[in-house]
Design goal:
270 residues; alpha/beta
């Protein structure tokens, strides 16, 4: 195993001839895909990895400057694909990883057959003629709460993000991976995500995009999925699911897994 693979806890599973890469969002790690993975093993070689900063990675490897933009994560993704020997893959990115995959695909479109975006947003802040869902003061309060008492913040944030109560298995699972992050790293990662604005690069995307979104999502309004659909340079398709929450693959796998599989197996009809 190479240095990059080891740092990102890369796992390659399955026996298929085609590669599929599963990339997680903020506050989670590769375990967020546990309901999806078993459905892929016969047809694909499944690549799982952890974004730097996840609680499963070595915090000593987290470079605050490198990961102050999404480009740092995109370079990591490309390094993983190179080290593993991937010449083409289907990329499934949840939340921020959808944008990380998008950035990576612009510099190396040959490596991506399609991008499947789950709960993705190019910008979280509201702007003139754009509704991202958050005002700056909302984010300031969020960051202050994280900085003052991280564990208390996690306990409140997890059920809101999932869209369930503290008793639900999905909330407990998300709470676990959130708690695993080092608080200063978690704050830095979330600040990077919330200050990112990928709207200007969407027109440069040449890889087909499948956009999957929950009907109700604390972090991403439904209109954002339509915005992505209208502005990516490549062909795209949107599917809004009758699910709640920002991590539907964890909270509503019975609904979400068939939808993701459909978009993996079927291309956008011309």
């Amino acid at each position: 195993m190479g240095i990059v693979e080891e740092a990102h806890n890369v796992k390659i599973l399955g026996t298929g001839t085609r590669f599929i890469v599963l990339a997680h969002g903020f506050g989670t790690d590769q375990s967020v895909w546990k309901h999806l993975v078993p459905h892929l093993l016969e047809q694909f070689r499944v690549i799982l990895y952890d974004n730097m900063g996840a609680g499963t990675t070595n915090p000593d490897y987290f470079d605050f400057e490198r990961y102050s933009t999404l480009e740092g994560y995109a370079y990591d993704l490309l390094a993983i694909l190179q080290e593993v020997g991937v010449d083409s893959c289907i990329f499934v990115g949840h939340s921020v990883s959808a944008m990380i995959g998008t950035v990576a695909s612009i510099s190396r479109p040959d490596l991506f057959a399609k991008i499947i975006m789950v709960s993705a947003s190019p910008r979280y802040l509201n702007d003139s003629n754009y509704f991202g869902g958050f005002e700056q003061e909302d984010l300031d309060q969020l960051f202050n709460a994280m900085a003052s008492n991280y564990k208390s913040w996690c306990s409140g944030f997890a059920p809101m993000a999932i869209g369930g109560d503290m008793e639900s298995v999905a909330v407990q699972e998300f709470s676990r991976t959130l708690f695993n992050m080092r608080p200063d790293i978690a704050l830095s990662v979330l600040q990077t995500i919330f200050k990112s604005d990928m709207r200007q690069i969407l027109c440069l995307v040449t890889v087909p995009c499948h956009i999957i979104q929950s009907m109700k999502d604390l972090a991403v309004p439904v209109v954002v999925a339509e915005y992505l659909h209208q502005h990516v340079g490549a062909e795209s398709i949107v599917e809004v699911m009758s699910t709640e929450g920002h991590l539907p693959q964890l909270s509503s796998p019975d609904v979400v897994i068939p939808v993701i599989l459909k978009h993996i197996l079927h291309d956008i009809e011309a």
